[in-house]
Amino acid sequence: MKDSSPDIRAIVDEMIRSAIARRASDIHVDPMRDGFQIKFRVDGVLEEIAAHDEASGRGIVSRVMVMAHLLTYRLDIPQEGKAEAQGVDLRISVMPTTHGMRAAIRLPAELVQPKTLEELGLPARVLDGLKQFAAGDAGMLVISGPAGAGKTTTIYALLDYIARSSPGVSIIALEDPVERDLAGVTQIEVSPFGELTYERALRSILRQDPQVLMLGEIRDSATATLAVQAALSGHRLICTLHAGTPGGAVARLVEMGMEPYQISSAIFGVVSQRLLRRKHGTGYSGRVPVAEIAMMDAKLRQAILGRGDRDAVQEAIASQEHFVGIRAAAEELIVAGITDGDEVRRVLGERTGG
After folding, report:
1. Which domain covers residue 48, as residue numbers?
2. How many helices and strands in the chain, by DSSP H and E?
3. Is residue 1 part of a domain?
4. 302 in a domain, yes or no?
């Protein structure tokens, strides 16, 4: 008698193959009350792709766990691992929910991310600011924005630019996790909850004769202190912060216990960015960054030293000569037909104030 049960291995292979073809960044296998849903994140937006019954859904999650060498008999704890399929490396995370195990699969960043600064499509002033930082010899560059704003993509492109334009420079990146191999960059994978934390790695890294340092994210006061000290001691340092504006990023550092004089002396500039979907006919295809950059100058330094709040700091930034805010940059993309008002409102919200 012919077996009518679904071929789970074939379903998973086709799911991954389809995600690669769609240039998805993530695959979600979501358990629901009445089955499982397969979703792809394409251009930052989740799309439901398929639905499976409960038995098939459990089989898909189990197959993914086997691929990542996870413990299939432990359905009560989160687990993470790596796998290779369809010629690409995958990062896999599973998590127990009220309806069963949920799987999230991250596809390689190089499938969807631009490789160079010029390919990013950043506003001209932001691009110029990044190149000025790359040509410098010290200072701290902060890339801010919410999760999924393209911060890591921008940093990878900047590190690649520094490696290519300054051969012989020692570049070390601390990442959680490493998303793409970079030629000319020493990449170290750290874990916030493991033995090799950002703080521990950063303390040791400063003895490794680096000239350029990259931190995946500043999350606490200890890491912030070490980062600022590194920038003040003659290193170029690149880091990320979850903040909505450059002023908000500065305020976060103050909240972490940094003294205003340290911040004003260490920071080279702060970039705030988002990703907007590109308009393509009647829909969207691909994304483009929209960003603003605040360079340290007398006005910004005075606002920081005066212990201004985030609004006061942002006001000082907005009054800088040649400053172009993120919303103004988005308006330029609308005029150029690259995106539209609906997408700008979706990402940046409705305009408020004057």
Report:
1. 8-109
2. 13, 13
3. no
4. yes
Tokens of 137: 């010899």
What span, in angstroms and rounded, lies between the C-alpha atoms of 99 and 101?
Answer: 7
* Residues 31, 57 contacting (CB under 8 angstroms): yes
Nearest residue to 265 (alpha-carbon basis) of 228, 295, 308, 315: 228
In this structure, the answer to whether residues 170 and 302 fall within a common structural domain is yes
Tell me: do 29 and 87 sit in the same domain. Answer: yes
Query: Which pairs count as long-range contacts for 282-288, CB under 8 Å and 24+ apart, including other chains?
Result: 284/43, 284/343, 285/43, 286/43, 287/43, 287/44, 287/150, 288/121, 288/333, 288/338, 288/339
CATH classification at residue 125: 3.40.50.300
- What's the confidence (pLDDT) of residue 1? 45
pLDDT, tens digit (0-9, with 9 covering 90-100), for 17-33: 999 999 999 999 999 99
* Contact indicator for 52, 66 with CB cutoff of 8 Å: no
Which residues lie below 8 Å from residue 335, measured CB to CB, with a gap of 6+?
none
Q: How far apart are CA 311 and CA 24, in angstroms?
A: 37
Q: Note the pTM of the prediction, 2 decimals.
A: 0.85
Q: Measured between alpha carbons, how far is 109 from 167 in angstroms, rounded to an integer?
A: 25
